[in-house]
Write a structure and sequence with these properties.
Blueprint: H1 22-50, H2 56-59, H3 61-84, H4 91-101, H5 104-113, H6 120-136, H7 148-159, H8 161-167, H9 186-193, H10 198-201, H11 208-213, H12 225-237, H13 244-263, H14 270-277, H15 281-287, H16 299-319, H17 326-335, H18 337-350, H19 356-379, E1 386-387, E2 392-393
Antiparallel strand pairs: 1-2
Helix pairs in contact: 1-3, 1-12, 3-4, 3-5, 3-6, 5-6, 5-7, 6-7, 7-17, 12-15, 13-14, 13-15, 13-16, 13-19, 16-17, 16-18, 16-19, 18-19
Length: about 400
């Protein structure tokens, strides 16, 4: 009787299937974005139209804005191919290159990261940074160091956010009429007040269920954790992403936020829940921290990448000039994705013998030190913050 081996032999894998490849993965990625796109349209278009605050054409604007992101990035990449490849300038040849380069995806992601009323010229500028500087100059798809969409978003965040806010920012036509919002997003309130209080951080926007569903102010694609989870579940089932990367990242943000709240006198779970449901944590966990080109490829590398990302996200939220720490931490860690990959590849092969054990110890100590430093820096924001096991009172 034949027996099935349970060892490490080269078993059949999904990746070996004839029809499985980059094109299928990117198609699945776009499909996973559909729930996020539809919710963004409902929240910022359909519902506002039903409220009577915009007309029919304005109701279509969120879809138009997202579509424009895809069109602009595709057009720019096509122009780049035309200018740089003099021997293959035919429409068919450029179209073939664009299909293999998945030119629309950076634009789609970028549009979902930006506020609803971002001026189109700002979107064009951001798409230029994402597509030309973040992707094509590095050699195109598969060669970029930074996540292209994230780079475009970061440049806008640091240089043109005043223009975006002046144009209307994240608030749709119904949200601007809600007095309790007081012109600030949930993370903006945390950054300005530096006070952990449910009545200040959550209650003006409803309850935590509103945060989970997504009926709170925010960028087009970041508000609905529910829609993002649908997309993430689809990607996991299709084996496009590994489940543990988003889980470890979100879990790290949750645990550190709980510790900050507990050491400040708020021992409940509402603050860590608030922390993972605000800003771009959930969106980044599913659609950017799992990006195959700019993140580590091996299992241990993905784990450490997610741990570092979670710690840095919380750190930058409390010490940065911007209330959102996700983009900054991801851009920063994109630089170290290759070193982390190489270190952890040695750990996988050498186990705990030299130098694998040394590398594992270095990475572990760095995560712990960053976590402690994050708690100390967060504590400087609160007068009641205490770290009894160290004996500090900040």
């Amino acid at each position: 009787m034949a027996r099935f081996a349970g060892g490490k032999a080269p078993f059949l894998r999904k990746y070996d299937e004839k029809d499985y490849g980059t094109q299928v993965i990117m198609k699945d990625f776009i499909i996973a974005l559909v729930p996020v796109i539809l919710f963004a349209w409902y929240k910022n278009g359909i519902q506002v139209y039903l409220d009577g605050n915009i007309n029919f054409l304005e109701m279509l604007y969120p879809l138009f804005f997202i579509l424009m992101g895809a069109i602009i990035s595709t057009t720019m990449e096509g122009i780049f191919f035309y200018v740089t490849d003099k021997e293959h300038r035919g429409a068919k040849e450029i179209s073939q290159k664009l299909s293999l380069s998945f030119a629309a995806i950076p634009g789609l992601i970028l549009a979902l990261l930006l506020p609803l009323y971002t001026p189109i010229w700002v979107l064009i500028f951001a798409a230029f940074v994402a597509t030309i500087i973040g992707k094509m100059i590095f050699g195109g798809f598969g060669h970029n160091i930074f996540n292209p969409a994230l780079l475009g978003y970061a440049v806008v965040g640091f240089t043109l956010m005043g223009v975006v806010n002046a144009a209307g920012g994240v608030f749709n036509a119904s949200e601007v009429l809600i007095d309790s919002y007081a012109g600030a997003t949930p993370l903006g309130v945390l950054a300005s007040g530096k006070e952990i209080d449910y009545n200040i951080l959550v209650k003006p926007y409803g309850t935590l269920s509103n945060f989970f569903i997504g009926t709170i102010p925010g960028a087009l694609g970041e508000t609905s954790a529910l829609a993002i989870l649908f997309g993430g579940l689809y990607l996991v089932i299709r084996k496009v992403i590994k489940w543990y990367t988003p889980v470890i990242y979100v879990g790290t943000v949750f645990v550190l936020s709980w510790m900050i709240g507990a050491l400040s006198g708020e021992t409940g779970l509402w603050f860590p829940t608030y922390s993972i449901l605000t800003g771009g944590v959930m969106f980044a966990a599913v659609f950017m921290a799992t990006e195959p080109v700019t993140t580590p490829t091996n299992v241990i590398g993905k784990v450490f990448f997610a741990l570092f990302l979670g710690v840095l996200t919380v750190l930058f939220r409390f010490v940065g000039n911007l209330p959102e720490g996700v983009g900054t931490s991801l851009i920063f860690l994109n630089i170290f994705a290759i070193p982390i990959d190489k270190f952890t590849a040695v750990i996988r092969t050498k186990r705990f013998s030299k130098p694998g054990g040394l590398y594992f110890g270095i990475l572990t100590v760095l995560v712990i030190l960053l976590a402690v430093y994050t708690l100390v820096k967060a504590g400087s924001m609160y007068t009641a913050f205490q770290i009894p096991f160290i004996g500090w009172v900040i």
